[in-house]
Task: inverse folding
């Protein structure tokens, strides 16, 4: 296998700095976390893992990039996905439930949206993202954001940052 | 929720360029993929998702950062983890099998190792990493690498790059 030296950090350090705050808040609240990620594809989990003390709070992630994997890995209703697509409040709600059912975590964050460059196969526009966040045995809090069309990586950065912020907010809402 | 603009890409572009090659190879070989990640925590999946055409080959990832999640999300034997720790050939083999069992993917890549800054709780040294890669109904190919102690982010970069290379290599070994 080839190897190369890194000239730059693997992940944007602004995101990692924000993750440090969130991991500290989760530790203070004695909450463990799992993510369920579609469009971000594991980046929220990867960013959280780079914070000091992540091992005490992060269980991991279920990355469901394809519709088929949303059903097989997280138990999201395949008829719902077929009928309404992947970017809905009910899908992120089911992603949160699926992740909590399949992991020991106290808290789950789900993200499903369209980062572009094109609308998704169901016609959802670039920039539309649903977030879901829920504690075990509590209702899932869903938020919908429409960032509008913007450069791919700017959008990705904002979505990951907002996902982290939502997790941070949820440490105080149990 | 606060938002900030990104000044830099979320993920190192050298990794994304390599992922472009791998996604192209997977498409040419008509193979879909899932990852099972411990120390990389979803970064291999996130990098793959940023390549053009990722939606045609990437199902997602099972990120099992904690031991408990290796068992609950991937079905890794908890007694094995307790006895031998998380960084072994058998653990990555079970991670590959678990990911293929829980997703529709043709091919799975598993990564488990110690990125540091300290040895893991079982005394495995920083820089020790096991990779597993397997097609459905085929034996898992396991490789062990000892990168030695080195800066955190250099090590992470090398591990993700080697994981991508192993996937690329596996497109031709079905």
Result:
């Amino acid at each position: 296998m080839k190897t190369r030296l890194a000239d730059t950090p693997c992940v944007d350090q602004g995101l990692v700095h924000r993750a440090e705050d969130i991991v500290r808040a989760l530790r203070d609240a004695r909450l463990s976390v799992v993510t369920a990620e579609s469009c971000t594809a594991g980046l929220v989990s990867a960013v959280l893992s780079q914070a000091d003390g992540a091992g005490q709070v992060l269980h991991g992630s279920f990355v469901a990039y394809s519709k088929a994997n949303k059903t097989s890995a997280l138990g999201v209703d395949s008829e719902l996905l077929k009928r309404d697509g992947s970017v809905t409040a009910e899908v992120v709600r089911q992603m949160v439930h699926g992740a909590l059912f399949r992991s020991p975590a106290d808290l789950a964050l789900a993200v499903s949206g369209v980062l572009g460059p094109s609308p998704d196969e169901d016609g959802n526009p670039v920039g539309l993202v649903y977030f879901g966040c829920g504690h075990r045995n509590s209702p899932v809090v869903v938020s919908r954001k429409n960032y509008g069309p913007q450069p791919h990586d700017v959008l990705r950065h904002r979505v990951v940052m907002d996902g982290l912020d939502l997790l941070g907010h949820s440490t105080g809402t149990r």
Observations:
- Helices of chain B lie at 13-28, 43-49, 67-74, 78-84, 89-101, 152-170.
- Chain B has one domain: 13-170.
- Chain B touches chain A through 61 residues (CB under 8 Å).
